[in-house]
Design goal:
The protein is of the alpha+beta class. It has one domain: Alpha-Beta Plaits (2-Layer Sandwich), CATH 3.30.70.100. Helices cover 28% and strands 30% of the residues. A four-stranded antiparallel β-sheet has the order 2-3-1-4. A hairpin with a 3-residue loop joins β2 and β3. The longest helix is centred in the first third of the chain and has 19 residues. It is globular. This is Antibiotic biosynthesis monooxygenase. It comes from Bradyrhizobium cajani.
Length: 108
């Protein structure tokens, strides 16, 4: 039986609209693959607003120990990608760690 996640790690960042497509491609190639190899699951979300675009990455973990091992002992520290200072409007200062209380994925 597959392991169900108990922890969600959520990162949010925003770009200017004119670099949003470039940033999306960059995150897909540089930021998402390490999570796909290690986490139970990962989602990349995008919200285009009038003047900026928000990106949210949610990774799912079996427990705090697994997530802490991936983050090298610092689960709440933001690990910026190399080009984040260039492409993001500001560098996020934190990630959110949430306990998953309900996990029903029966999408219809």
């Amino acid at each position: 039986m597959p392991t169900k996640p108990t922890i969600a790690r959520i990162w949010r960042g925003r770009t200017r609209r004119d670099v949003a497509d470039m940033y999306e491609k960059y995150v897909r190639t540089e930021g998402i693959p390490p999570l796909e190899r290690t986490a139970l699951g990962v989602q990349l979300l995008r919200e285009d607003r009038e003047e900026e675009t928000w990106f949210t990455t949610i990774s799912y973990w079996p427990d705090m120990q697994a997530m802490t091992a991936f983050t090298k002992g610092e689960p709440t520290k933001v690990h910026h990608l190399d080009r984040d200072p260039e492409l993001l409007i500001e560098l996020p200062q934190r990630v959110e760690i949430h306990r998953i209380l309900v996990d029903e994925q029966g999408l219809r």
